[in-house]
């Protein structure tokens, strides 16, 4: 059963912007960008690591249609509905 057959699905997400999330994101995204550039690293580990929600530099920013430069660009924060959130990622 399709509830809205005439609507294109919107597949984007964001996180609540909080201090711990910011710290985890900075650490994980920095490690990923370092690992991704080292030819001695195992590709399986890089692929596994790239699926982490704490890696933003391999995600698309729908505002620019380009990858986020780093975690700081993704994190924002952006005010919405009375709270702080990250930028939307698709």
UniProtKB/TrEMBL annotation:
<protein>
    <submittedName>
        <fullName>Uncharacterized protein</fullName>
    </submittedName>
</protein>
<dbReference type="InterPro" id="IPR052766">
    <property type="entry name" value="S41A_metabolite_peptidase"/>
</dbReference>
């Amino acid at each position: 059963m399709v509830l809205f057959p005439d609507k294109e699905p919107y597949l984007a997400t964001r996180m609540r912007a909080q201090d711990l999330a910011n710290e985890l994101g900075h650490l994980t995204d920095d490690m990923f960008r370092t690992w991704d550039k080292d030819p001695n690293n195992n590709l399986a580990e890089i692929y596994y690591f790239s699926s982490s929600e704490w890696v933003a530099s391999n995600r698309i920013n729908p505002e620019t249609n380009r990858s986020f430069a780093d975690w700081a660009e993704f994190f924002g924060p952006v005010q919405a509905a009375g709270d702080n959130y990250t930028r939307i990622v698709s």
